[in-house]
Amino acid sequence: MSLSRAPRRRSTGGRALLLTAVTLTGALALTACTGADGGKPTGSGGNYVTGAKGVSTAAKGERTEAPKLDGETVDGKTLDTTALKGKVVVLNVWGSWCPPCRAEAPSFAKVSKELTDAGKDVVFVGVNVRDNSKQNAASFEETFGITYPSLYDPDGKLLLRFPKGSLNPNAIPSTLVLDREGRIAARTLAPLGEDQLRSMIDPVLAEQ
């Protein structure tokens, strides 16, 4: 006489929790030190074009407004990027644990200081992600001489505010340049050297 085994049933509540976890994981899937496409050029988008060097740009009349990014900074102060309209804003997404972020940090420190000292109409803002403590992030800034503020975003929630299909920062590191109206003018999903960084900023600074 054979005994049939009753099918194993997962509770509805457990299944719901699993689906929620999977959804959140997918939403926060900013692959460490790379992007969904490995940082490679992806051709043309709906309102932007990606060049041979992996920098995507949007024409002045085709840009998407960047979302409000606000909260506490690594040094314990507060920052709201919408208050920076009227200036060109360079947003850099980084983590102290990310080797490419460490590689590009000296270029950001140098270019930001030189542009500030020259009185250029540009400000730099970092977005620190996936660091479990502010201490690690603060040590990174001290080591590389980063003097501009960085929003502390350990869960990557600020990055989820960017609309899908836009030039969103879906890799670490990512760099965006916002025009004076707070719209996304350029983006790259790869680490930058000094010359590449300037090549993203200068055309937006020159706009009237």
Notes on the protein architecture:
The protein has 208 residues and is α+β, with helices and mostly antiparallel strands. Helix content is 28%, strand content 19%. It contains four helices and nine strands; from the N terminus they run αβββββαβαβββα. The strands form two sheets. The protein has a seven-stranded mixed beta sheet, covered by helices on one side. The relative contact order is 0.20.
Structural class of the secondary structure composition? alpha+beta
Helix content: 25-40%
**Low-confidence runs:** 1-32, 34-45
Number of strands: 9
Strand content: 15-25%
By DSSP (H or I, 4+ residues per run), the number of helices equals 4
Shape: globular
Order of helices and strands: HEEEEEHEHEEEH
Q: Give the rounded overall mean pLDDT.
A: 84
- Biggest beta-sheet profile: 7 strands, mixed
Distance between the termini: 87 Å
Q: What integer value in Å does the Rg equal?
A: 20 Å
Largest sheet, spatial ordering of strands: 1-2-9-8-5-6-7
